[in-house]
Amino acid sequence: MNVYDTERMTESLQTEGYVPTDSVEDADMILLNTCHIREKAAEKVYSELGRFKNLKSENPDLKIGVVGCVAQAEGEEIIRRQPLVDLVVGPQSYHKLPVLERQIKVGEKRVEIDFPTEDKFDFLAKRTGVKRAPSAFLTIQEGCDKFCAFCVVPYTRGAELSRPVEKVTSEVRSLVDKGVKEITLLGQNVNAYHGAGQDGAQFTLAQLIWKLEKINGLERIRYTTSHPNDMTDDLIDAHRDCQKLMPYLHLPVQSGSNKILKRMNRSHTAETYIDLISRIRKARPDILISGDFIVGFPEETDDDFEDTLELIRQVEYGQSYSFKYSVRPGTPAAERQQVTEAVKNTRLQELQKLLVEQQKTVQQDMVGRTVRVLFEKHGRQIDQVVGKSDYLHAVHASGDDDKIGCVKNVLITKSNTNSLQGKII
Ligand code: 5AD
Ligand code: SF4
């Protein structure tokens, strides 16, 4: 979502006369778009800011801002800790950037972290660019009301909110007009989507997907990230029936221990999750399942961890993201009995070993198969193009740039660590 937000902020500042630059030395304004999900990401902001000290002494007109979830969570504290910062803006307020830019240009410092009553999307610049990359992100839902005990999202992104259906479809149309072929619908809890249709009736995510399916020129639809409890039957059916909906599902489970899931406030069990996966696979047998896992959540024992490994063995993930539990200030789990760093390290290693094996097996199974690939850019080698398969695997193939933006059938010939190699048919 930060990638999407960054695009929107760039577009807003372009209407104020700014142009993007690849070199920080040339910049009149630097905005760091930040993540607060784990401590490591949040702390990185301060080391990055330190690197801009010299730039500011060389160019006193340079303005530096911190935007995103660290801005939301830490507010004025950021300027106290790093006085070279001129601007702090939370993720719900970045539509105010053009106004804030004028204020900081005349020497004011501004902190904007209230949750505004207006919808920021109504105030953002129109989607710009004559031609865009073939694949684009699009936020349709923001925030979360689930309050998992480890997670800062409900505090930084705020309450769950869905964008109205017409706003989403018109943004998709505008992106497709500029060459976009694949849209990834984004939300912290995207499958809880319940945006209003024209007559005020609420759409489910599946109903929205069916509406987008009808847009000519749009070839692929994806969505992320989902919660198991919001995986409704109509969404499972869409995976069976909707041609443009890709056979890939990121469905975080976090833990395989019912005791830990309960303490995480996840409101699903290992059994309901496994049953859900089997219903999804029944609807779309070739779907690739991806997950998020946390090891070392407070009070996690060896037996609890073993339950997580067992769940992974049963599900067989094609892709995964795994993390050591990170204490987040203000969340319920921060106050509990913590697992030692050494135990977290050992468990993460063991977990990742299993997940890497599974990923390798799933990738190896692709060899010899013909898959559809949307080519997105040229590769490192001459006459090489790179794209994504329906299953979201990165695929390299020989071919010239006229393949970019096209979906082609590709025979997979080799599996590398994190990508596949193939031959365009
Ligand atoms: N510590 C470790 N991982 C976390 N995640 C969220 N909060 C934390 C935390 N405090 C992980 C979850 C979530 C993903 C986006 O980040 O697995 O699904
Ligand atoms: Fe965080 Fe996801 Fe839980 Fe919401 S559902 S609190 S975003 S982990």
Give a written overview of the molecule:
This protein is α/β, with parallel strands linked by helices and 425 residues long. It contains 14 helices and 17 strands. Helix 9 (205-213) runs parallel beside helix 10 and helix 13 (302-315) packs parallel to helix 14 (341-366). The longest helix has 26 residues, at 341-366. It starts with a helix and ends with a strand. The relative contact order is 0.08. It binds 5'-deoxyadenosine (5AD) and iron/sulfur cluster (SF4). Iron/sulfur cluster binds next to helix 7. The site of iron/sulfur cluster has 10 residues, from helix 7.
Quick structural overview:
34% of the residues lie in helices and 21% in strands. With 425 residues, it is α/β, with parallel strands linked by helices.
Tally of alpha and pi helices? 14
Radius of gyration: 22 Å
CATH hierarchy: architecture of the largest domain: Alpha-Beta Horseshoe
| CATH top level assignment of the largest domain | Alpha Beta
> Largest beta sheet: what is the strand line-up?
13-14-15-17-16
Overall pLDDT: 96
Which structural class matches the secondary elements?
alpha/beta
Largest sheet: 5 strands, mixed, barrel
The geometry reads as globular
Instruction: State the low-pLDDT regions, or none.
Output: none
Associated small molecules: 5'-deoxyadenosine, iron/sulfur cluster
CATH topology of the largest domain, by name, is pyruvate-formate lyase- activating enzyme
Distance between the termini: 34 Å
- What proportion of the residues form beta strands (DSSP E)? 15-25%
CATH superfamily of the largest domain: tm_1862 like domain
